Amino acid sequence: MFLDQSxxxxxxxxxxxxxxxxxxxSVIVDITGAGVGTLPxxxxxxxxxxxxxxxxxxxxxxxxxxxxxxTVPTAGTGAGTxxxxxxxAPDSGTGTExxxxxxxxxxxxxxxxxxxxxxxxxxxxSLNSNTVLPRFYKLTYTVASTFSAxxxxxxxxxxxxxxxxxxxxxxxxVV
Length: 175
Description:
Blueprint: E1 17-19, E2 23-24, E3 29-30, E4 42-43, E5 46-47, E6 66-72, E7 81-89, E8 101-105, E9 109-110, E10 118-123, E11 136-144, E12 149-157, H1 159-162
Antiparallel strand pairs: 1-12, 2-11, 3-11, 4-5, 6-10, 6-12, 7-8, 7-9, 7-11
């Protein structure tokens, strides 16, 4: 797993977005890297003459499974809840987002249950063959009642391969 500014839902990698009300992520991830309002220059080695762009991060290749990985750097507060929804949109044809659809949502998470160091791992489901491949990804934080928590959110491939801590006992020795 690696963290990359182009795959971060935060304005700066490692700097949390504090969520207190219903809001979208600070950044919309454009998997082409072209930026909102810009059509990519090259698609599969050919000049971009159509809008059939995007990569299916929701399906992976069977080995590289994409996830949205959220970390809570400091404890959340409030008895209210947040539901985190991953949404995707295709290119509209002008380099901007088309209509967003919900890919997956978490259960409601209580603010006081989010202790410092909490990691929320959301594996992305496969897209069906009728789905237009998404170019844009965003998170929607839906808050109910009094809630506050900071989130560092990234689109990552195989985060569990790096997080091997806890799989072996302390002082495990390889022989």
